[in-house]
Amino acid sequence: MQIRRTADRDRPALLRLWREAFSEDGSWFFDRINAKGWCAENGGLLAMAFALPQTLVTEQGEFPAAYLYAVATAKAARGKGIATELIRAIEADLKADGVSGVVLVPAEQSLFPFYDRMGYRVWAYRQTATQAGGKPCSAEEYLSLRKAMLPKPFLQPSVEIAECYRFLQTASGAYALDDNGAVRESLPATQTGAPFAMAKAFSEVFPQQGYFSLALD
User: How far apart are CA 3 and CA 30, in angstroms?
Assistant: First the structure.
């Protein structure tokens, strides 16, 4: 089995695996997000995963981080430890690139123990998000509001990722909505007790817990 970075020529195979794993067309992701991708193959695509850039914002400064997204294994290749090997390889590459830590959002509750065995710990909790009107604002404006309103530490996405949402600003806060109009984040933010994201630190600057909400899930 070979683990390598993905290339443009892999898109058809990646889309097939995306449809199999997530029951949706992933064209939007490849059209809108320029993410680093990795895959495992052996005569065909076995697994894939992507690392989306994030900025860890702390009281001590800002540091590069990553959001591990769309981890998927072909049905015929599951149960063989392929995803584990793939993630380990990605982690090594991210560390070499100076990334301070990586966050991920398990697709379902049953996956929390799997990632826990790999050294990931609950890092952020699900937010109670509500909406109360507002006027449209740009991704850049919204990201500025996040920096002003969120308690540190938190993860800040790139403008490219933020542009997957639309934003409304009010006199007291702001909201991020997905393509279906569902509220994905509200500012100021309030987390609940439900685990949402897990993370693994690669550096001492990466805290044990923080805030993460714009997860493209």
Answer: 20
